[in-house]
């Protein structure tokens, strides 16, 4: 049998021939687009001592920016997961007038320049804006607060969650839900025990993509954040401030911290997603 398997394996042809050529092109593009730019950060930091780098990444202003960035990004990603599941479900399972328009609007943050979206949100939620004026009279401030940053991150992150979950719901046949309903399961139990386990890997992917995008977001938060140190100054803004002041040590040091953190977050989510897939296969 092993001889037959070897013969079959030899006869199989890949759609893209030439493993060596394909791998070489892939590694070259990966190096030019990802590895070399990231390596340049380490090259710049090689001109400074560890004490200098450590002083920059642990300064009180930098630590405050980490807190603002991570907290607002996490809250925005959680909100995006909740509403992303709802939007993906509505767009997939229901037919109503304007559904295709709504489906297209989901991708609008991809096409719109982030600075434009940030400016629009600032005008809308400022003290004199249409919504901001109403909220201000109620004692609620959105612009130039962490809430405004969260609002901007929700806007730019929602497409990642919806587009990750939508294909899974499309492949999930309603017969599974009907069978569970016939067996006496409630709607809540059907969702948490039938629907959600199937969506969970896609939910994790959407959360990871939205969270990673939010961590490094600049354009949509530059206006609505107000760049107030220790209050609304996110990490991307403090990096830009250092660059404006020609403080390359500060900019590259903090950038390296965010690169490492983003990698750890994405790596951890990939590990979690693999475990979820494994548990689903064993179930």
The pLDDT mean sits at 81
Task: Estimate the helix proportion, in percent.
Answer: over 70%
Number of helices: 13
Shape: globular
Q: What's the order of the H and E elements?
A: HHHHHHHHHHHHH
| Sheet/helix structural class | mainly alpha
Number of domains: 2
End-to-end distance: 32 Å
Stated plainly, the CATH topology of the largest domain is called: MetI-like fold
- Let me know the CATH homologous superfamily of the largest domain: MetI-like
Instruction: State the major sheet.
Output: none
Relative strand content:
under 5%
What's the alpha carbon Rg, rounded to whole Å?
Answer: 23 Å
Q: Could you describe the 3D structure shown?
A:
This protein is mainly alpha-helical and 283 residues long. The protein has two domains: 14-45; 49-282, MetI-like (MetI-like fold, Orthogonal Bundle), CATH 1.10.3720.10. It contains 13 helices and no strands.
């Amino acid at each position: 049998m092993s001889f037959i398997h070897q013969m079959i394996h030899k006869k199989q042809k890949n759609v893209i021939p030439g493993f060596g050529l394909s791998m070489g092109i892939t590694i070259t593009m990966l190096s030019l687009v990802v590895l070399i730019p990231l390596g340049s950060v380490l090259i710049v930091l090689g001109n400074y001592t560890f004490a200098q780098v450590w002083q920059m990444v642990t300064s009180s202003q930098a630590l405050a920016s980490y807190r603002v960035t991570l907290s607002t990004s996490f809250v925005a990603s959680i909100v995006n997961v909740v509403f992303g599941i709802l939007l993906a479900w509505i767009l997939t399972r229901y037919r109503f007038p304007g559904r295709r328009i709504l489906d297209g609007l989901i991708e609008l943050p991809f096409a719109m320049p982030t600075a434009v979206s940030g400016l629009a949100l600032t005008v809308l939620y400022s003290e004199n804006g249409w919504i901001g004026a109403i909220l201000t009279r109620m004692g609620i401030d959105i612009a130039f607060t962490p809430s405004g940053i969260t609002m901007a991150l929700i806007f730019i992150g929602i497409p990642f969650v919806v587009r990750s979950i939508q294909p899974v719901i499309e492949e999930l046949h309603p017969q599974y839900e009907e069978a569970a309903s016939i067996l006496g399961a409630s709607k809540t139990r059907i969702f948490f025990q039938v629907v959600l386990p199937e969506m969970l890997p896609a939910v994790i992917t959407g959360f990871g993509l939205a969270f990673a995008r939010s961590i490094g977001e600049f354009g949509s938060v530059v206006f609505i954040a107000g760049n107030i140190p220790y209050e609304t100054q996110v990490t991307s803004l403090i990096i830009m401030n250092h660059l404006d002041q020609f403080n390359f040590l500060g900019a590259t040091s903090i950038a390296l911290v965010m690169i490492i953190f983003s990698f750890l977050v994405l790596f951890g989510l990939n590990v979690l997603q693999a475990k979820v897939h494994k548990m689903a296969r064993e179930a």
